[in-house]
Amino acid sequence: MKTVNKHILNHDSSIVAPEFDGYGHENSIVIENDQPFIVRMRPVDLINETIKYYGFSLSGAIEGSRSILGNINMPPIVVIPSSDTIWFPCKSHKHKDCVWLAHAQIADKERVDIARTKVLFKQGHSLIIDLSVNQFERRMQRAAELYLEQIKRKTGRFQEFSMGFNILKDSGNRNYTVHREES
Q1: How far apart, in whole angstroms, are the C-alpha atoms of residue 105 and residue 65?
Q2: Which of 4, 51, 67, 179 shows the greatest Cβ crowding within 10 Å of its Cβ?
Q3: Where are the beta strands (DSSP E) in the chain?
Q4: Angle at 43 between CA 37 and CA 49, to 5 degrees
């Protein structure tokens, strides 16, 4: 497998997993498209270096996610801000066996057993992780919420409206009538 000293994750990256060499040094296995390779950086450092490349930091990304999603443990984070590329850890990023997944690259999941889930990726890869299906779905849901909030904020569609409309179908079941809500 090819080994590089540094790397910046991109839209084709899907998995960052820890790998320990014969000397006990922590590296990262990265999957991009159909190419696995090793980066001589810890997964958390690779994630942080990618975020820093775009002018931010891992701690800032975590803080930003928590300001949007609430004070949750192991929040998903925006890794590439210009394209709202969201990644999430399968366990605390402080654990040496933490695997990071790119939300947009995930196609589906399958239950392996009560405590493990097989993650299926759009490129045809799969990965068995130590999370129940419910835990995995919760992480996916949080990543989707963060993604949608990023889109709303970029498009300016995040205002709260004080007055809305009631739209009702008429008794003839053909037309709808629109009435302003009373406050």
Answers
A1: 20
A2: 51
A3: 2-4, 13-20, 26-32, 35-39, 77-80, 85-89, 100-102, 106-113, 116-121, 126-129, 165-169, 176-180
A4: 95
Strand-pair partners of 27? 19
What's the predicted TM-score (pTM) here? 0.83
Residues 162/147, Cβ–Cβ less than 8 Å? no
**Is 70 exceeded by the pLDDT of residue 106?**
yes
Any bridge partners for residue 80, and if so which? 85
Is the CB of residue 27 less than 8 Å from the CB of residue 40?
yes
CB-based contact 109:119 (threshold 8 Å): yes
| pLDDT tens column, 41-62 | 999 999 999 999 999 999 999 9
Which contacts qualify for 16-19: CB closer than 8 Å, 24 or more apart?
16/43, 16/46, 16/47, 16/87, 16/99, 16/100, 17/43, 17/99, 17/100, 17/127, 18/42, 18/43, 18/96, 18/97, 18/98, 18/99
